[in-house]
Amino acid sequence: MAVTEQQIADRHLLTTPPKAGDRRSFSGTSTTQAQALPPEVLADVLGKSMSPDCGNRYQRSASDKPDGRYRGTATATWSIAWTAPALCDEGEFTETQATAWTAWVGEVQVLDTN
Predict the structure, then answer these.
(1) Whole-structure pTM over 0.90, yes or no?
(2) What are phi and psi of 72, to 5 degrees?
(3) Is the dihedral of CA 34, 43, 37, 11 positive or negative?
């Protein structure tokens, strides 16, 4: 997750630069592995962290959508090849998980860089 330089300094967080393919804006920030943080530190950082957009861009609020929310489905597919040499066995399988999501977008801001 993205963290500010102040959060890094205040909590002595271990960080890494954003991945080259990350589409989020990280001006003056780094990333840290959320799973590695103690629960109380994670809760404190999340209360002040940047909200990632995950590459999604909303051009208008969701006020005209059902329940005032955008809706979609996130799908992940894993293809696994396994071997068990001691048993002289191997195989492959594919697993797909889909989860419905909603996003409340109440305000859209515009940044004019000209």
Answers:
(1) no
(2) -170, -175
(3) positive
